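Exercise 7.
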Amino acid sequence: MSQNTEPTPPVDPDPAPARGKTVQLKVSTLVTAVAAVLLVGALVTVTVLWQSARGDLSDRDGQAANDKRAEQVASNYAMGAADLDYSDFNAWTARLKSNTTAALASKFDATSSKLQEILVPLKWTSSPTLLSSQVITRDNGVYKVNVYLNVNSTNAQNPDGVLTTIYYTVNVDPKSDWKVTDVGGIDLPLPKR
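Solution. The predicted structure, written as tokens, is:
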């Protein structure tokens, strides 16, 4: 009988835990992955900033268009109000009430007879030339616009005419279909004391 002469390996009472699989990456692969992640992050950042800037530009363009419309409405109103011929007084009062709210038109109705008593005997005429208009404030959606006009006026006392520069402050409300809600003299800020 033959005996197995090979020694049996000793049994380790605490076997080492099995090793997990290892992943090997090339440095170039790792660099490419990091670059791709950074590129995607930069692309997302640029996209967000671009959308934000686009919204800001859209808001600015919308505000500029509204300012221009308010200035146009105010200019049209001021030109009509400054264009007066005593011989056609009713046409002038119609221009005073044109594109105004009902409340403002009723104020003109209440005062027109008194104005007629003054302007007709003086034989007053005036013709305006628009110099400029500018939105000076936006308050609760209402645009306050200063309108500057040169007005050539003639009357019984000055038949050769007098050229004056006049100012109107015109409030325009887009919520009232871009109607004029108030008219007054120039609205300039006063110096602080």
